[in-house]
Design a protein that fits this description.
Shape: globular
Mean pLDDT: 97
Oligomer: single chain
Strand content: 5-15%
CATH superfamily of the largest domain: Type I PLP-dependent aspartate aminotransferase-like (Major domain)
Number of strands: 14
Number of helices: 12
Distance between the termini: 26 Å
Order of helices and strands: HHEHEHEEHEEEEEHHHHEEEHEHEH
Largest sheet: 8 strands, mixed
CATH architecture of the largest domain: 3-Layer(aba) Sandwich
Helix content: 25-40%
CATH class of the largest domain: Alpha Beta
Strand order of the largest sheet: 1-9-8-5-4-2-3-13
Length: 375
């Protein structure tokens, strides 16, 4: 039976179990123990002048961001429709309306040139999504945000180890949100982090993350008892998740190098193949090889390619269905301007296998079968 080339295999670097066993030895299982703090410290070192807090997911990091910027009923949030539902849900839960704008076909990121026209007196924030770990045009977005006094929340769920003009994704806007779901480059099954780039958020973020209590201050001996002081929820992950994640963060450079090598091999094999478009990496941007995708003629050809690859033991998948196409949730959003690229480009996109355990021979085989189909 031929080998199956999996679309994704969750990263395991090898010493996760040792760290988890240490959690059992320490008998500290709830969050904010030694491993949570070590992960926070690693992230703070990576992001330099920011405060980092592990969360239970990127979804919860986004929900925390919505609370921190005080989203109210009637506020408007500008973002792309080509994203995961959590990007929108976090703000809809606070009563906001989502204003979608079109994407750029070259990066699948929000089209920064269309943001300003979508701004109204009700606009509260811009949420750029760094698709595939490739940065949005953050200089332009920050200029617009500063002009209209708007918050910028970076959805960098896929973006750890990526940079924009030398700055880590998630450290450019007011707040950055990351995912450590098992489909990401670094994972602990379910997990995330919120990166706070303005000191005005530091104290309140700890409170929101601890169910609206000042428990963190109590544990540091700053108050003699903790109590309910604000709104919040249970956004704190367990020490088991943090211990697992720390192993992966400490191997981040090694993992990043391997993934970039695989990405480059895909690019080399497919760069001169007719009938497909490849992922574009703009100048001054360093990506993290979160994914490698190709674009076919349309969704029918894409489905045929999926079936062709599957017949040879290769798993490939399409990605998001644009959020504005969900009629059941139309009361929460509207699409500003024309949908010139969001739907058509999403229907062409096909993600190829990409994970740390992939071999160069696997990549060569995938590319060989793609070329066979296109002939």
């Amino acid at each position: 039976m031929p080998k199956t080339i999996q679309f994704n295999e969750p990263l395991v670097v090898g010493d996760e179990i040792k760290r988890i066993q240490d959690v059992f030895t320490n008998k500290k299982f709830s969050g904010d123990g030694i491993y949570t703090k070590k992960c926070n410290s690693w992230l703070e070192h990576h992001f330099k002048n920011s405060k980092a807090l592990l969360t239970t997911s990127c979804t919860h990091a986004l929900e925390m961001a919505a609370i921190l910027i005080d989203i109210q009923v009637g506020d408007e949030i500008i973002m792309p429709s080509y994203t995961f539902v959590s990007t929108a849900n976090a703000f809809v839960l606070r009563g906001a309306k989502i204003i979608f704008v079109d994407i750029r076909p070259d990066t699948m990121n929000i089209d920064e040139s269309k943001i300003e026209s979508a701004i109204t007196p009700n606009t509260k924030a811009i949420v750029p999504v760094h698709y595939a770990g490739v940065a949005c045009e953050m200089d332009a977005i920050m200029t617009i945000a500063n002009k209209y006094n708007l918050f910028v929340i970076e959805d960098a769920a896929q973006g750890l180890m990526s940079t924009y003009k030398g700055k880590s994704l998630g450290s450019i806007g007011h707040i950055g949100c990351f995912s450590f779901h098992e489909t990401k480059n670094y994972q602990c099954g379910e997990g995330g982090a919120i990166i706070l780039n303005d000191k005005i958020f530091f104290k309140r973020a700890e409170i929101i993350r601890e169910k609206g209590t000042n428990r963190s201050q109590f544990l540091r001996g700053m108050v003699d008892k903790y109590s309910w002081v604000d709104i919040g929820s249970s956004y704190l992950p367990s020490e088991l998740n943090a211990a697992f994640l720390l192993s992966q963060l400490k191997s981040a450079e090694l993992v990043n190098t391997k993934r970039l090598s695989l990405w480059s091999e895909y690019s080399r094999e497919l760069s001169f193949v007719d009938k497909i478009d490849l992922q574009l990496i703009p100048k001054d941007i360093q990506h993290n090889a979160h994914m490698f995708y190709i674009k076919l003629k349309d969704k029918n050809e894409r489905q045929m390619m999926i079936e062709h690859l599957s017949s040879h033991g290769i798993q490939s998948v399409f990605h998001y269905i644009p959020l504005h196409e969900s009629m059941n949730c139309s009361q929460y959003n509207s699409f500003f301007g024309d949908d010139e690229f969001t739907t058509t480009e999403s229907e062409r996109l096909l993600r190829l296998p990409m994970h740390y355990n992939l071999s160069r021979r696997d990549v060569e085989f995938v590319c060989k079968k793609i070329k066979e189909f296109l002939k």
